[in-house]
């Protein structure tokens, strides 16, 4: 079937893209806004934009709130220009992660409402997520916007300033992701990553 994305409404196009690009890792992005409230929200669009220098990328939202109001995460990033990316979301963190996705009022901290634990970072004001295997302290490089109001997607490019990895997952100088029990996002449901296997290139010239 040949599908022309032009003319598809937002929901149909979202389901087409999100249903094909799977599984997606889930990150928790921790921010602090002008009010000083610690915010944390789940995002399933995290990716590596560059290794050297280390740059992460993620889309904050694919649709803004009614009336065009920006979500707290994007607004806080624009204000503070620094934040924390906590990855991956694990099986043990799954329910807290899901709860953090609720639209709490801006003056309410998701940390307090979900049981996620904030820990002071070394270089940024946003908090680390204690439950996360890895926390990246980040500085904003650029925000690129796509779409038209109110369906605007904001692509955030973030320079990694520091990395915090739990000792039990960082062995002999390398992360051991299979020990983390990470979960992923399909379209609507989630998936576990317990069933893993190795592949080697067999083709030779």
Automatic annotation (TrEMBL):
Signal peptide: none annotated. The keyword RNA-binding does not apply. Residues 19-172 form the Flavin reductase like domain. It comes from the Bacteria. Keywords: Flavoprotein, FMN. Its cofactor is FMN. The keyword Manganese does not apply. This is Flavin reductase like domain-containing protein. It comes from Rhodoferax lacus.
């Amino acid at each position: 079937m040949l599908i022309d994305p032009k003319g598809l409404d937002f929901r149909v196009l979202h389901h087409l893209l999100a249903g094909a690009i799977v599984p997606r890792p889930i990150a928790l992005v921790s921010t602090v806004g002008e009010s000083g409230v610690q915010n944390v929200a789940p995002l399933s669009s995290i990716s590596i934009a560059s290794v050297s220098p280390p740059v992460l990328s993620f889309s904050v939202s694919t649709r803004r709130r009614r009336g065009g109001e920006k979500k707290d995460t994007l607004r806080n990033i624009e204000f503070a220009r620094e934040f924390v990316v906590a990855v991956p979301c694990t099986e043990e963190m799954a329910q807290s992660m899901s709860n953090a996705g609720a639209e709490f009022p801006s003056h309410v901290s998701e940390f307090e409402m979900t049981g996620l634990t904030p820990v002071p970072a070394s270089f940024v004001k946003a908090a680390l997520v204690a439950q996360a295997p890895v926390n990246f302290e980040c500085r904003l490089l650029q925000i690129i916007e796509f779409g038209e109001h109110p369906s605007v997607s904001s692509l955030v490019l973030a320079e990694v300033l520091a990395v915090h990895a739990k000792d039990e997952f960082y062995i002999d100088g390398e992360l051991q992701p299979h020990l983390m029990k990470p979960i992923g996002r399909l379209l609507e449901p989630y998936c576990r990553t317990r069933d893993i296997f190795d592949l080697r290139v067999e083709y030779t010239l």
